[in-house]
């Protein structure tokens, strides 16, 4: 190794690959591979790199050039294979070398004391325990044969998992070859590890998703699980994934006597372990370290949700044995869930379908009302400044209307605070100069902004609008990313053959989506109006316009004065509608949709408006109507169907298995009616 010229700088000069003989290229490839693996080990395992990132990139690029010039010399175990392999159709199944058991867990101190007492009864000597952070990641089996990476698989059901070999090969801290310690390495080694996402990496991924108005990952674990199961490993290679190893499933040569000895051996083989691991031998020590783990959890660069307590001595473990699903020699002491107060990690800006830029707080996960929250709205720039919250602060979080999470206020300032939040001068998605409208910041780019285009199509296709079944968010994102859709009318130019190119689609599913799009061309007038996403035009206003003007052409041609004269249409709504239909780009888009066969029906003035001015909420399952049908019946008769109960609610319609809305209605003294009474209300507008 000492004779390898790439172990430290300066490196020797590189000759052009075309000037090298095959034998010389083979020697250089071998030396480069060895050096790159050595530097990876220093960087990921020892945390003591001896060359800069740019110098490492220089070695890597040189190896890629040589392998391109001499493809026959490229090995499956080359460091360049960590950048990903071609996509596959689906993940294979792998049977584990030994069962991957789960752990019993509790956040109750008494359960932990009982576990320790039971161990101490079995052990004549004083039991020793190993404490490890409980990662909030994905448990995997990784197998090496003759020191070379063979395969990796998810835990699955504990007996069989999914083969994710190509994906995890791209993780920098996972060695493709084991390092050779003084005693060598086993000819066959199956180890257990936890793949997780670094905290700042998770924040960055969610930041990009939110800016594009895509649904962010709920937490780092969900993000990790989704990424490691990708069918295209090239999409995994640039993600901020890490792995810690913490157990052995099969080793055919080494007879370890204790878990602590095993953990000391792992780094010698190049397998990264957690630096927080520690030994102790009493409950008092365990409790002390548990409190320390809980105190430092916010400062770690990864999520932990507790501490794992393991018996160190393997002979004692064997005598304790295992239950069907978990061992008797280990227990997870979970942290109590965070409630209401949490750390604000980052403020990012989300671009919605209407172009409004909204600041969103990315948070350490916090539990509110049994739901874990990791992001919350900050509404607008004025609201952020008023609350004076900044990254690193501890904030109070609430669920507005018990639904939408929002930052309620500042709890504790960070000692060294960042600058106050300011909205960007340009759209974070498309780079267009933003404009201000009152308290709102808006991207005026319209459908040329990718975030607005995706959001607009999603809204257009939704159940209450055009009701295009099978056209979900992920499919829309693919269609826009692949440039199959550049503007809304392109949706109706898609062919089933083109749809087969999307990930997750085959001939049948592509044909089903194509048929669903084609069958949406003749919607009800009110649905079409709502689908267009005109600002301030919700379902109720859309139905009112449809019933008043009857035809789409008359709505298009109605000016501000005509609109503002209608009941329930104020100046702001009238201005928004007239502006939408007078905009040249919008008119061209509507003409294009019409040419492609999209023609809405007509409204009707004949229906009696029995429920005009009434607000009705539904809860539970109705026998005669689906939730959507009941909602449409209410709105056709002039009423409003809303999702939450308030003092302004006139009726709560109760079906089977009602939810919490029933309790809320009783508190607010709202009239509660059953389905039979609801049918009577729809028929006559009165209750008998």
How would you explain this protein's 3D organization?
With 688 residues, the chain is α+β, with helices and mostly antiparallel strands. It has six domains: 17-83, Helix Hairpins; 105-334, D-amino Acid Aminotransferase, Chain A, domain 1 (2-Layer Sandwich); 341-442, OB fold (Dihydrolipoamide Acetyltransferase, E2P), CATH 2.40.50; 446-518, DNA polymerase, domain 1, CATH 1.10.150; 525-595, 5' to 3' exonuclease, C-terminal subdomain (DNA polymerase, domain 1, Orthogonal Bundle), CATH 1.10.150.20; 615-684, BRCT domain (Rossmann fold), CATH 3.40.50.10190. The strands form five sheets. Strands 12, 13, 14, 15, 16, 17 and 18 form a seven-stranded antiparallel sheet that branches. The longest helix has 25 residues, at 22-46. The model has no long low-confidence stretch (mean pLDDT 87).
In what range is the share of β-strand residues?
A: 15-25%
- Helical percentage: 25-40%
CATH superfamily of the largest domain: DNA ligase/mRNA capping enzyme
Q: Architecture of the largest domain, CATH level 2?
A: 2-Layer Sandwich
* CATH fold group of the largest domain: D-amino Acid Aminotransferase, Chain A, domain 1
Task: Outline the biggest β-sheet.
Answer: 7 strands, antiparallel
Number of domains: 6
What coarse outline follows from CA principal-axis ratios?
globular
Secondary structure class reads: alpha+beta
Number of extended strands: 22
């Amino acid at each position: 190794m000492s004779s390898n010229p790439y172990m430290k700088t300066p490196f020797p000069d590189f000759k052009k690959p075309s000037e090298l003989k095959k034998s010389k290229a083979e020697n250089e490839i071998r030396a480069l591979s060895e050096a790159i693996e050595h530097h990876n080990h220093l960087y990921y395992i020892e945390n003591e790199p001896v060359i800069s990132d740019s110098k490492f990139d220089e070695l890597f690029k040189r190896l890629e050039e040589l392998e391109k010039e001499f493809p026959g010399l490229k090995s499956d175990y080359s460091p360049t294979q960590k950048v990903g392999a071609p996509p596959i159709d689906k993940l294979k199944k792998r049977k584990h070398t030994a069962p991957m058991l789960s752990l019993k867990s509790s956040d109750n101190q008494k359960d932990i004391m009982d576990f320790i007492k039971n161990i101490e009864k079995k052990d004549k000597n004083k039991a020793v325990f190993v404490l490890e952070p409980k990662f909030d990641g994905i448990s995997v089996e990784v197998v090496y044969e003759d020191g070379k990476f063979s395969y990796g698989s998810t835990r699955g059901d504990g007996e069989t998992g999914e083969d994710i070999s190509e994906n995890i090969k791209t993780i920098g801290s996972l060695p493709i070859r084991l390092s050779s310690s003084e005693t060598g390495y086993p000819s066959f080694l199956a180890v257990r590890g936890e793949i997780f996402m670094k905290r700042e990496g998770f924040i960055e991924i969610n930041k990009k998703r939110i800016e594009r108005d895509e649904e962010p990952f709920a937490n780092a674990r969900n993000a990790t699980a989704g990424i490691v199961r990708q069918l295209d490993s090239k999409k995994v290679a640039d993600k901020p994934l890490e792995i810690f190893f913490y157990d052995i499933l099969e080793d055919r040569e080494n007879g370890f006597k204790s878990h602590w000895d095993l953990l000391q051996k792992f780094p010698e083989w190049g397998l990264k372990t957690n630096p927080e691991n520690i030994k102790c031998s009493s409950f008092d020590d365990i409790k002390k370290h548990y409190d320390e783990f809980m105190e430092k959890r916010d400062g770690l660069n990864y999520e932990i949700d507790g501490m794992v307590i393991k018996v160190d001595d393997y002979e004692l473990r064997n005598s304790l044995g295992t239950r069907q699903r978990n061992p008797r020699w280990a227990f997870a002491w979970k942290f109590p869930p965070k409630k209401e107060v949490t750390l604000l990690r980052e403020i990012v800006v989300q671009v919605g379908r209407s172009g409004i830029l909204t600041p969103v707080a990315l948070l350490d996960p916090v539990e509110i009302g049994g739901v874990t929250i990791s992001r919350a709205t900050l509404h607008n720039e004025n609201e952020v400044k008023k609350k004076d919250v900044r990254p690193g602060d501890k904030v109070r979080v609430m669920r507005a209307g018990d639904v939408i999470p929002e930052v309620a206020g500042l709890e504790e300032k960070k000692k060294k605070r960042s600058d106050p939040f300011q909205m960007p001068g340009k759209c974070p998605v498309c780079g267009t100069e933003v404009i201000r409208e009152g308290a709102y910041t808006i991207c005026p780019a319209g459908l040329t902004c990718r975030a607005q285009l995706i959001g607009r199509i999603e809204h257009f296709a939704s159940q209450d609008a055009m009701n295009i079944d099978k056209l979900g968010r992920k499919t829309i994102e693919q269609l826009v990313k692949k440039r199959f859709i550049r503007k809304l009318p392109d949706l109706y130019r898609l062919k089933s053959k083109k749809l087969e190119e999307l990930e997750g689609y085959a001939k049948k599913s592509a044909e089903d989506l194509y048929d669903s799009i084609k069958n949406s061309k003749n919607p009800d007038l009110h649905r079409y109006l709502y689908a267009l996403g005109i600002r301030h035009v919700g379902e109720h206003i859309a139905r009112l316009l449809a019933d008043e003007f009857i035809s789409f052409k008359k709505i298009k041609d109605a000016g501000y004065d005509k609109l503002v004269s209608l009941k329930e249409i104020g100046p702001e709504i009238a201005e928004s509608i007239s502006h939408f239909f007078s905009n040249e780009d919008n008119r061209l888009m509507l003409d294009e949709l019409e040419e492609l066969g999209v023609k809405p029906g007509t409204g009707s003035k004949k229906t009696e408006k029995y429920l005009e001015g009434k607000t009705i909420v539904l809860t539970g399952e109705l026998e005669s109507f689906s939730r959507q049908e009941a909602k449409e019946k209410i709105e056709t008769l002039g009423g409003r169907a809303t999702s939450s109960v308030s003092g302004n609610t006139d009726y709560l319609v109760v079906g089977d298995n009602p939810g919490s809305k029933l309790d809320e209605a009783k508190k607010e003294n709202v009239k509660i009616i059953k389905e039979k009474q609801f049918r009577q209300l729809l028929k006559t507008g009165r209750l008998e």
